[in-house]
Amino acid sequence: MIDKESDETMIMKIKSDTETETKAEMGRDEMAETPKLDLSGAERTARIVELERGSVIQTYTRQPILLVRGSGARVWDAEGREYIDFVAGVAVNTVGHCHPAVVEAIRRQAIELIHTSNLYYTENQVLLAEELKGLTGMDRAFFCNSGAESVEAALKLARKATGRSKIVAAIHSFHGRTLGSLGATYKPMYREPFRPLNEADFVPYDDPEALASAVSVDTSAVILEPVQGEGGVNVPSPEYLRAAREICDDCGALLILDEVQTGFGRTGKWFGKEHSGVMPDAMTLAKGIAGGLPMGAMLAAESVSNVFQRGDHASTFGGGPLVSAAALASIGAIKDEKLVERSEAMGRYLRSRLAEEIDALDVRGLGLMVGVEMEANCPEIVARARERGILLNATSDRVLRMVPPLVIGKEEIDRVVTVLGEILREP
């Protein structure tokens, strides 16, 4: 005889199930809040700074503000101060902070399915792969969680496709800090503590002759950024990447374009490679792909993608339903709001205003990826601009990098340029 639950137990179970379903359908304003300190303003900031120093491994140099809210191209700290954000999470928040379409996509997906692993099919991942194929002209996608991971995937693909291990990269390159990607990252201070690595042969950027002399039949891949980001927003001639394509073809090496920072409209085109018309064998994506959520992807041509067989590479979280939903929504927003075209127009406006108002050695860039090289102490300028409500980033002592959300407006650009000019004119 089958045991049956009592009427009272059954009623309680139905009530519990109903409440669970109701909560899943509620918006975030109805749900329980994430626990936060029962402090406000400066006390809250000071306490978080204190806790971070004792609880988080100290690998970052952080600005002394506690950011708590963002919308569009602006953020606010715990003390209520507003900032124009010209960092955008390091070129991540292309559609702005908390874009309504991305927030809604995350909310809807979160109440349906958050994670399954790649042991099963999920719809959003496949639809995103199709979307990326159309945007990039590449043939297949591998999903991961970050730019460094996408570079790792590309380097592994190159090694298996060619049977070679040597890499050629550019001076001032940045491709990540994992052991594989670190070998292709130029700055010696990043590599020195972790040697031995499979280190690249580093050659001057935008120098086809130097590149040709470094590539041989032992080279598995040449990895280049269409515009160097961490290296100071260095823009090559269109002929450079075309020459790189020919050099790789001649010796059978793969050409990998690292579009982690240049992708999704940042340079005034969907991808940096479009400025030269070059098709790589593989390209790496992350940062702006998912509206602020952590995601990466490696795209490859059919001619090399099939060398990866089942078990050759994997990622537990790669291309999960939640981040893929956010990515689809972010790409949709870029299309609907014509943010690629806006990036080109606003970037041109930003560079012209900087050239007019700022005594700089050079103002360079493409779209809303702009570098300002000056004789001034740029880290000091970053600190002084923050005090005036502007968030900037220095890639070195002499270069400011400006990568605001693509939704940035002329009034915000004018304000940033005015503040920067005031700072530079001060004693």
Outline the structure in words.
- By secondary structure, the protein is α/β, with parallel strands linked by helices.
- It contains 15 helices and 15 strands.
- Strand 2 and strand 3 form a beta hairpin.
- The longest helix has 19 residues, at 7-25.
- Residues 1-28 have low confidence and may be disordered.
For the structure shown, list the relevant keywords.
2 domains, Aspartate Aminotransferase, domain 2, 427 residues, 15 strands, 41% helix, 4-stranded mixed sheet, Aspartate Aminotransferase, domain 1, alpha/beta, 7-stranded mixed sheet
Describe how the helices and strands are arranged:
Blueprint: H1 7-25, H2 41-55, E1 67-71, E2 74-77, E3 82-85, H3 88-91, H4 100-110, H5 123-136, E4 140-144, H6 147-162, E5 166-170, H7 179-182, H8 188-191, E6 201-203, H9 208-214, E7 219-224, H10 238-251, E8 254-258, E9 282-285, E10 296-300, H11 302-305, H12 321-336, H13 339-357, E11 362-366, E12 369-373, H14 378-387, E13 390-391, E14 393-396, E15 399-402, H15 410-425
Parallel strand pairs: 3-13, 5-6, 5-7, 7-8, 8-9
Antiparallel strand pairs: 1-2, 2-3, 4-10, 9-10, 11-12, 12-15, 14-15
Order of helices and strands: HHEEEHHHEHEHHEHEHEEEHHHEEHEEEH
Question: Which strand order do you get reading across the main beta sheet?
Answer: 4-10-9-8-7-5-6
| CATH topology title of the largest domain | Aspartate Aminotransferase, domain 2
Fraction of residues in H or I helices: 40-55%
CATH top level of the largest domain?
Alpha Beta
Report the C-alpha radius of gyration, rounded.
Answer: 24 Å
Number of strands: 15
CATH-level-2 architecture of the largest domain: 3-Layer(aba) Sandwich
| Gap from first CA to last CA | 91 Å
Mean pLDDT across every amino acid position? 93
Number of domains: 2
Residue ranges: pLDDT <50 for 5 or more in a row? Answer: 1-28
